[in-house]
Amino acid sequence: MKNIPWQDSPENCKDVLWRHASNPIIDRYAIPSSNSIFNSAVVPFKDGFAGVFRCDNKAVQMNIFAGFSKDGINWDINHEPIKMQPGNTQMIESDYKYDPRVTFIEDRYWITWCNGYHGPTIGIGYTFDFEEFFQCENAFLPFNRNGVLFPKRINGKYALLSRPSDNGHTPFGDIYISYSPDMKYWGEHRCVMKVAPFEQSAWQCTKIGAGPVPILTAEGWLLFYHGVIATCNGFRYSIGAAILEENEPDKVKFRSKPYLLAPAKLYELTGDVPNVLFPCAALHSIEEDRLALYYGAADTVTGVAYGRISEVLEYVKQNTLK
Ligand code: BMA
């Protein structure tokens, strides 16, 4: 793995995740049409990085845009949204696209996003070069959100996390897994994790959803996720982590009782939707024991947080929800 973005933990910092010193790294007006740029996904690409960015425009229409970076921090985001060509099916409708995730599997970069098809469901597409993009069948019937692929086949099949949902600002939500032999037909749906009881871990008591593509570690899959509590001022989104069995990822080995990162900085507490941290990507290096987590802040801008993979694993094991 090439040099991923990194800053050492600030002095006296006791947290397992810490923020990039000059967050947010992407401003809401970074392209001419944008109202906000957040909940976006990045991967290593050629001698740098590429990404798929959620840029809502000034009519507040949600769409996804390709972008490129040498260092993972300074991004050139295309001014025009991604145009899809037919992938493994004829061209299907898309009223909107948001909250992308990207992962490389075998020979191409797969993209999942929340696709507007009579309400939100999981869109799937692929690219080889971040220039041409191909759209495949939606994974599910509406309504569903937070579709996140595993970065390799599991027992010979593609595996996809998702969160069955509704057509509004869903007041519920648990994480499920589904399998496919071909990225077209999905089945073998199993429940992975449900919300936590309010008395035990209130930050994740209303709904939870998978965040970045899971990271394979010696302990199993490290899955960052968002957890939501409904407060008197609306939803508050924080970041937690779980460890899933490598070959049976519907089995949760550990899951953090405390959150790992929650809205606290001004750009997380204020914006179009206050109090939202929404992670969609994690660059990582197992050898260097580093990770860089990309998250949308307050549905307005994009931030990065850093951590040591070994410390996150240890923290989740020591502070697990029983
Ligand atoms: C969810 C999605 C996310 C958003 C979050 C908070 O339902 O729309 O894109 O970050 O709400 O508004």
Automatic annotation (TrEMBL):
It holds the Pfam family Glyco_hydro_130. GO terms for molecular function: hydrolase activity. Keywords: Glycosyltransferase, Hydrolase, Transferase. Signal peptide: none annotated. Belongs to the glycosyl hydrolase 130 family. This is Glycoside hydrolase family 130 protein. It comes from Autumnicola musiva.
